[in-house]
Every structure is written in C-alpha cells, then in structure tokens.
Design brief:
heterodimer; A: alpha+beta; Dna Ligase, domain 1; 7 helices; 33% helix; B: Rossmann fold; Rossmann fold; 7-stranded mixed β-sheet
Chain lengths: 226, 487
C-alpha cells in the first residue's frame, strides 16, 4: 500500500494520525471527517468545510501522544476560536509544527479502543477494550490471537468488565456490535497482510448514532521493516 | 524429526542409567533406586566406569558394553560429559535420552552453548531428547519411575507434561492423596529438543490417557501450540496452569495496545481459543483432572444446588455467578414435588435448602428430584457427607449419669453410621450414572476421605464449594468449546 511504502521510504517509525486513518479507512474502518492544514487561513477554510464544532490537533509522526504534549484543542465552535487555537498549538509545540489536523468533533461520552499487536510467540493479536482516559487507568481489555472469526470478535465485546458500555446509556443508543466486530476483523486482516506493521492503536473510537468511528489512530512499524 | 511416536520413551524394554552412582546422596543413585523399587518391568543397566556393581546390579563402563539393545538412556553426569555420552548412545542405537544433568541454558550463555552441542549430537544420531535439566519421567504401564523424587503415584487416566519438575511431581504426590491417578508424567526441563507440544501430541494419541495436564511457562512457537491443542481439545480435555502470568511484555511497546499485551492476556486468549482449560492454581489442576476424568460433562450451564445450611448455598450461588454458571429458579412442578418432602417453611428456591435436616432420606429424595429435572445440567450437592465422623465429647464427661448415658448413646450412633457404607454418597454416585449429569459433592472432610469417596462410590467431591464451583465452571466452558467447534 502506497501510504505504508512512502512512510517506510522516508524512514518513519510510525504513520501520522492522518496517514494512520487513511490507511485504516482503506480497510473499511470508519474514520472522522478531517483535513490537513498548514496555515491559519487553511485551518479556517477546512474547519468551515467540515462544519463546526471541530478539533485541531498537532499532526506529525513525532507527536503520537498529543494529549501528553498538549497539542490538542477541542470543541472549537467558530472561526475565531479555530484561528486562535492554531496559534496556540504553534507556540506550544517544541519542535516546529509543520501541519495541523482539522477534525469533526463527535459529542459522545463513550469511548472504546481497539488495537493490533504482533506477539513474538503468537503472532498478530487483536485487542478490544475501554478507550480514552480509561485505557490506562482501568486496563479493561481483552485479546485474541488472529485469525479472528466473527464469533471471536462478538465474544470479545462481551468479555470486558465494562461491557455495559455497549448498551444504551443516558439516552444514547446501544452500540452497533456488528460494526465494532467489523473493525476487529479488519485489524485481523491487517495483521495477516501487513507484516511491516507491529502495532496499531485506534483510541478512542467514538459513536455516531451507535456506530463506531475512529477518532484517533496510530500505526507503528516493526524495527525490521525500516 | 519424523519419529514422533514416544512409545519407547515412556514404555522402554531396557534402560541404561548413565552416571549411576553408589553414593546415596547422588541423583545417579536415587533415580536408579526409584526405578528398581518402582518394579520397572524391563531391564536396567547401570553405567559408570568407576564402579563394578551398584545396588547388586552389574555396572558397565559404557553403554557400548551393555549386552542388550537399549531403548532409553538416562544421564545424570556433570553437564560437560553429556555431549560425548549422547554420541555413544547414538552408536549403541539408543533412540531416546533423558538428560537429568543441569548447568545448561538455564544458567546462561555458556550453558546454552553446551546445550546446543548436546542437541546437535542428538540430532546427528537420530535421538529424541528429554531435557536437559529434567527431573525425569513416570509411566504406569511399564511401572517406570525414572524420577528424582521418590513419589508413588496412583495409576489412572491422567497424563501430564510440566516445565517445572518440582511442581509436576507435587501433582503426582497430591494426586495419590486425592484419588487422581496418572498414566504418564514427564518433566520437560529446558526443552532443548522434545517440547511440551510434542508431549501433547503423544498424549493425544495415547489410549491410556483420558485427560491431559500441563504446566507451561513458555513455548518457542505459540502458533504451533494453538494449532496442535485446538485439534486435540475436540476429543481430549487439556488442562493448563500457566506460570508467569503477571510478567509484562518483553520489550517497551510504542502503543497502548502493545503496552497492555502482557504475557497474561495473550496467553489467556490463546489457551481459550485452542479449547484448553486454564486453571489459576496448582490445586485447580488436580481438581479439574478429577472431575474431567470421572464425570460426564454437563450439557449446559444450568446448576441446581442442594444444601443443608443457608450460608453455604449463598456463597455457592455467588461462585456460580463468578464462574459463568446459571442458577435457574425452580418451576412449579419441581416445587410441588419438593413440598412433599421438605418442611412447610422451606424457601422454594434454588438452592434447595434442607433447613438443617440431618437425616439422609430427605436429602436423597430432594437430590433425585433435582437430578431428574431437565431444567438443569449439573448439581452441586453441599453437605453430601457429614463432616463429623465421631462424637467428640465422650472422654471429658463423668457425671451426671443421664448425660454420660446420652453421650454413650450418641457415640454408639456415630459408630453405627461410621461402619455403614455412606448412603448419600452411594446413591449420589448411582444418580450420576443414571441421569448422566455431574453431581459434585462438597463435604468438610479430609483430602484422604475424598479419595475414598471416589474409589468407593465414584463420587467426585471437594472440601469447599469454591473449589467445586470453579471445576464446574471449567467443565461448562469446555462444553461450550466443544459445542462451538462442532457447529
């Protein structure tokens, strides 16, 4: 795949968020509407195309823990705040910020996470769990060795302790389990077809009308592939 | 590498004991003694160039001098001597070697180099090798106790491979106390050549083996383990204790997924996907072995509970919930049947609480009603055997006379019961066969009496409901696997 080849050719250890999501989208994984922008004017233009509110994130392969680096501005409701956010990100960024990602905001409190991990003994494994800030706090995750069957994928969803998150919650619809299983199966497929990839995080996955959408993603290469 | 039939390893006709010693403190003496005292059915030849005879057996300077063809050699010499001894075994035509000697890859890079040399020698000579750093093996059919600890296991249908010799042999020792009999055991040591997966394959094909146990810390190729085990699990249960569950992944991960993919979570998934039953304690290995070998599998997850006391019923229901088991309410027709036996104020629920009834007949009648009810797949029978076998107060009381008489009567009653075969357990064992449902008994009795319940009445029992309910949870998980894999 071109995205992978280009990134490996430039010696990158991982794809940027934008590239990661383009790559995942090629495997049928739904992603947020978003665009890369390189100037204040471009940020404002893209934000109006996507529609407010938007998020603006520092986008670079070196910035894969954007929250830790304080390179995210969320829930920007108009052009003025988008322009201000762009300048704030540029000034906070220690390395030179070449580009930012303008992204639709999804208002949904429930956050899931899925991932791929190439285990030295068992090969590619797929992960499902609670996402967002709870990822590290609760570590409520379950793994399967690939290849995954649809039955495996559906079982994984009910195996986390916080499985109630899948049900309807405070007026929000129940989560479309088949669509989440589709993502897990896509990751299983990626594990088989993309030997250069060592790890993938899709975190968080948020929900639009109960359907999962990848809001942030990271694709990491094996050292050998470089 | 084609000869995967390990028959002559576990049931050899003739063995050379290389490094046999006259010093009772050396493994070369102890293992030889264990083989001889274990009444091995074949011939044993001690090999040691410095001795004329050991334990009354003629000692040979080398395997080459042994007048018979040999199936198996056991080596206990210092590590450095092992490569050339393996070469000699090859020249003698020996196909299997157990290397007890340690100081190989477990000690560092130099040991690892020596181990590789040993393995190279074995491969050159077409030898399959157990260990190095093995504690030996046991086989019931040929009465072979080629093992370091002097343990006399019960004979039965359980076979085990263990990456810890100590832990594994302990299972054979506990098994003898708890009524779990073994067909074969191997301490796989460093697995320089033969691996857990090889033993798994052999036990799968072995008709004496009905249940496979394994203690695992790691394997070279996890994918191979999964593929092998998944095929075997469809016809034989494999029960695994995984050591090193809490160890985190071997290297720093760049993603959250990688960071959370600790050994524990991936192993748990892998074992489960292959239909293996993962237990979390050493005791759990034996507890499962006992039930899987002796009882039919439950067809589903619905459990009936019978108890002589409320609290035990309550914690058993909790345990069912925690072990993926269902405790369905009683339907009207079952309640009507139980109404005829139990006092008016009984709870009319599952667990069926006998409300402190100590008599046997109501217990058995209620048990049979539950066993016959098609709404449940298994039964946990709490208090199936009275915990108290003798009256404990007799010696201390000397007056007044009516009390002394009453104690004498009570003592006599207990003696009377103690002499009779246990009615509840006897009938319980028959109900398991009649209704083809596992009825697991729980009784506060010593481990040794649980063995006697199994031997006398074919009743599987445990001293606590927690242990019983965990075993039942694993049985139901296995049923689920079998159902899913036959879909």
């Amino acid at each position: 795949m071109k995205i992978i080849e280009n990134a490996l050719a430039r010696g990158a250890g991982n794809l940027t968020e934008y590239e990661s999501k383009r790559f995942l989208a090629a495997y049928g994984i739904p992603i947020t509407r978003e665009a890369v922008a390189r100037s204040e004017e471009e940020v404002a233009l893209k934000a109006s195309e996507i529609g407010y509110p938007v998020a603006v994130k520092g986008s670079d392969e070196a910035f894969h823990h954007k929250t830790d680096l304080d390179l995210i501005e969320l829930n920007l409701k108009d052009e003025k705040s988008v322009r201000r956010a762009y300048h704030q990100l540029v000034s906070r960024s220690k390395a030179k910020l070449k580009e930012v990602l303008v992204q639709e905001m999804i208002a949904e409190p429930r956050e899931l996470m899925v991932g791929l991990y190439r285990d030295p003994q068992f090969g590619p494994c797929v992960m499902f769990g609670l996402g967002g800030i709870f990822t590290e706090i609760l570590q409520d995750t379950v793994f399967r060795v690939t290849p995954l069957t649809r039955k495996d994928a559906m079982e994984m969803l009910t195996e986390i302790k916080g499985k109630k998150i899948l049900e309807s919650f405070r007026g929000k619809p129940r989560i479309d389990r088949d669509k989440v299983a589709d993502i897990l199966l896509a990751l299983s497929q990626i594990g088989k077809e993309q030997p250069a990839i060592r790890e993938i995080d899709i975190n968080p996955i948020k929900l639009v009308n109960g359907k999962p959408v990848a809001v942030d993603a990271l694709v990491v290469f094996s050292a050998r592939a470089l | 590498m084609n000869d995967m039939n390990l028959e002559n390893l576990f049931n050899p006709q003739s063995i050379a004991m290389i490094g046999a010693s006259a010093n009772p403190r050396k493994w070369g003496f102890i293992i030889l003694l264990n083989i001889l005292k274990g009444n091995f059915k074949g011939n044993v030849y001690p090999v040691n160039p410095h001795e004329k005879s050991i334990l009354g057996y003629r000692c040979y300077a080398s395997v080459m001098d042994v007048p018979e063809a040999l199936d198996l050699a056991i080596i206990t010499t210092p590590a450095k001597a092992v490569p050339s001894l393996v070469d000699q075994c090859g020249r003698k035509g020996i196909r299997f070697v157990v290397v007890i000697s340690s100081d190989f890859s477990e000690t560092g890079p130099e040991g690892a180099r020596l181990e590789q040399e040993v393995i190279d020698c074995a491969r050159r000579n077409g030898i399959r090798l157990v260990g190095p750093n093995s504690m030996g093996l046991f086989s019931a059919r040929s009465s072979l106790h080629a093992q370091m600890p002097p343990i006399m296991p019960l004979t039965g249908g359980v076979s085990m491979f263990s990456q810890s010799g100590n832990l594994g042999f302990q299972m054979l020792g506990w098994g003898a106390e708890e009524g779990v009999g073994f067909s074969k055991f191997v301490s796989s040591g460093n697995e320089g050549d033969l691996s857990s997966v090889d033993y798994l394959r052999y036990f799968a094909a072995d008709t004496d083996t009905r249940v496979i146990l394994g203690y695992l810390e790691g394997v070279d190729c996890g994918v191979d383990l999964i593929h092998t085990a998944r095929a075997i699990s469809k016809h034989k249960p494999i029960i695994i204790l995984k050591g090193g569950r809490t160890a985190s992944g071997g290297r720093a991960a760049a993603s959250h997924t990688g960071a959370m993919a600790g050994a524990s979570k991936i192993w748990k998934a892998a074992l489960r996907q292959a239909g293996m039953i993962e237990v979390s304690t050493s005791q759990g290995l034996l507890d499962c072995a006992k039930a899987f070998e002796n009882y039919p599998l439950p067809k589903g997850s619905r459990v009936g509970i019978i108890t002589r006391g409320g609290g035990w019923g309550v914690i058993t229901v909790d345990g069912c919930e925690e072990n993926r088991l269902d405790v369905p309410p009683l339907p009207q027709n079952v309640i009507r049947k139980l109404d005829k036996i139990l006092p008016k104020y009984w709870s009319r629920g599952n667990p069926v609480d006998l409300v402190a009834t100590i008599a046997n007949d109501p217990y058995l009648e209620c048990l049979e009603i539950l066993a016959a009810w098609d709404g449940i797949d298994a039964i946990l029978a709490l208090g199936a055997k009275r915990a108290i076998d003798s009256y404990p107060y007799s010696k201390e009381v000397h007056q007044p006379q009516p009390l002394v008489d009453a104690i004498a009567l009570a003592t006599e009653m207990f003696q009377h019961y103690a002499q009779k075969p246990d009615e509840v357990l006897m009938n319980l064992g028959q109900m398991v066969k009649r209704y083809r449902k596992p009825i697991i008994a729980v009784s506060l009795a010593s481990e040794l009496s649980h063995r006697s319940f199994l031997e006398a009445f074919q009743v599987v029992s445990y001293p606590t409901p927690e242990r019983a309910v965990r075993v039942l949870g694993h049985m139901v998980d296995y049923t689920r696997f079998l159902n899913a894999s036959s879909e």
